[in-house]
Amino acid sequence: MLLIDLKPALSEEQLDARILRDFESLHGKTFADSLRRLLPMALVEPVSEIAGVPLQKRVDEINKKNRKDLVKTLKCVALHIKSFRPIDEAIITRGGVKVKEISPKSMESRLCKGLFFVGELIDVDGYTGGFNLQTAFSTGVLGGVSAAALVKGI
Length: 154
What we know:
The protein has helices at about 10-25, 30-40, 40-50, 65-75, 130-150, and strands at about 1-5, 75-80. By secondary structure, it is mainly alpha-helical. It has a two-stranded antiparallel ribbon.
């Protein structure tokens, strides 16, 4: 079993207060609307299901128990791992900073000078077998050397 805290920066009390504020500002809206403020879209439906609160329920109808169940779900989602996916589906995390927004000579952002991106922060997909590790190592070294040179004024 894997336990995940979806809101690690907030204590249960802080998260409950945040949810209450969202509910107040979304008077008459659905529970789904409130979750979209807290979570990526892909997590809205599963979190609703795990917390036991229907997505179409109005936030003004959600009672304290529903809210506490939501907080507990967000702070400790339990996932039961059944098996691994087939190796032919294995690739690195998708998404990240677009390659065209990064200088290939230094790994420095073209949009924000002094900011460097390496490894899986970059939107590059690679098959397993060391390709993604090589990308991470190579961009890590280049980005680190480039950032150090910037700091030293070289």
